[in-house]
From TrEMBL:
GO molecular function, one term: NADH dehydrogenase (ubiquinone) activity
GO cellular component: NADH dehydrogenase complex; plasma membrane
Documented EC number(s): 7.1.1.-
Record organism: Paucidesulfovibrio gracilis DSM 16080
Protein name: NADH-quinone oxidoreductase subunit
Keyword Transmembrane helix among UniProt keywords: yes
InterPro entries the record matches: NADH_UbQ/plastoQ_OxRdtase_su3 (IPR000440), NDAH_ubi_oxred_su3_sf (IPR038430)
Topology versus the membrane: Multi-pass membrane protein
This protein's UniProt keywords: Membrane, NAD, Quinone, Transmembrane, Transmembrane helix, Transport
Superkingdom, taxonomy of origin: Bacteria
Primary localization class, coarse: membrane
Amino acid sequence: MVFSWLHLAIVLFLLGGLLFGVGPLILAVLLGPQARGGDLGMPFECGMRPHGSSWVKWGISYYCYALIFLAFDVDVLYLFPVATAYGSIEGWLPFVKVFIFLFVLGVSIVYFWAKGVFSWPRRINL
């Protein structure tokens, strides 16, 4: 294999990208402040000392709901450009594509419902 200018450019761009990604991390470790203790370990609340406990434990159900919401929200966002693009196309193919997309979305909601993901468990106080 002959080493050409294209290979050199690819290697340089890979090294530059790696340096661009890892360089700030290395500089932060080397040049960042090294002080420990005091108010540095406290949670930040607008420059004021926090009131109460900041280490609140959230239930896993909250995160499941958040992930499901994000997944379905992003899926619904795909419908807006599709509706705009398919508005000027004639035929049944765009309708079938959107119907398949909505069908899969609906089946996934039914699946999550059957698995009990949407039922919020009551908190058990011990």
